[in-house]
Amino acid sequence: MRFGVALFPSKQLQDWVNSYRKRYDPHYALIAPHLTLVNAFETTEEEAETLARKLRDAAQQHEPFKIRTSKISSFHPVNNVIYLKVEPDDKITDLHKELNDIIDSTGQTYKFVPHITVGQKLSDDEHFDVYGTLKMQGIEHEEEIDRFHFLYQLDNGQWTVYETFRLGKEAE
Amino acid sequence: MRFGVALFPSKQLQDWVNSYRKRYDPHYALIAPHLTLVNAFETTEEEAETLARKLRDAAQQHEPFKIRTSKISSFHPVNNVIYLKVEPDDKITDLHKELNDIIDSTGQTYKFVPHITVGQKLSDDEHFDVYGTLKMQGIEHEEEIDRFHFLYQLDNGQWTVYETFRLGKEAE
């Protein structure tokens, strides 16, 4: 089975991102707006149960943290993904590192750029048009993240949450 | 915000149900196949946090249980919902009752019939056709349920998981 780890921002931010994803992201119906912490990887259900325990322990070692978004950016020319940039800071970078060390996945081939995808799989022309329009918009926004989610993918591509983990000691 | 409580069956069962939902359920893209424990209700985010604590306590008071599916059934003529019937037993009925007592929602107007929706919002003719075909199929299946999910709905109708709760004492 295919698993991944992500965090979902507030409903307010998800609704804002969905207003664009609806038109520009073919994964719109497969998962709610999210920030990927561990890229999709293959494992067995038995192994997932072991990983879930490790992820729960890790969650308790990290305190809730704030994320701050500012501008719309793009991974072009690496790929035509338009995203809402989340300002990197030590807390999210440390969490990302620890979770990826636990999963020990080879899927993390790029440097971690915390982001929430707004559009993807666009042709070069579409990308140019959409990015030209969106990069003016951005959203100055700050909110607290107090949990992350371990998910798995169904055969149709949809993601289902396996378990949520609250950050911090008081979550116990 | 609109919240609800549901459980997701195994990936195997979700994939089977989705093979039909794809054609017969307009909610296909909004949520993965699920069994509703508390119907959608309105509450504030602050109140949801209080409810989450109560749901977590309730989860610890209920042990994991088995669900058994057998046949495809329909709520017609009440409404044209075709569903995979989950055999009712004390464990799921008790959990349903306690969760609804916690939420104290007036949404629960029907007797609890544990089910996983396969098709809905069908015209009478469609319902007659589809039900005629599917009621022969059914799926004899048994599996263990060890968690349930507290969810909220985005403006576009999609559901996002707020938190998962594992059943039983050892979940602590």
UniProtKB/TrEMBL annotation, chains A, B:
EC identifiers of the protein: 3.1.-.-
Coiled-coil zones: none
Source organism of this protein record: Neobacillus piezotolerans
Domain of life: Bacteria
Gene Ontology molecular-function annotations: hydrolase activity, acting on ester bonds
Name of the protein described by the UniProt record: Putative phosphoesterase DRW41_17905
Residue ranges annotated as motif HXTX 1: 34-37
Motif (HXTX 2): 115-118
Residues annotated as the enzyme's active site: 34, 115
Signal peptide: none
Similarity-based family: Belongs to the 2H phosphoesterase superfamily. YjcG family.
Major enzyme class: hydrolase
Keywords, sorted A to Z: Hydrolase
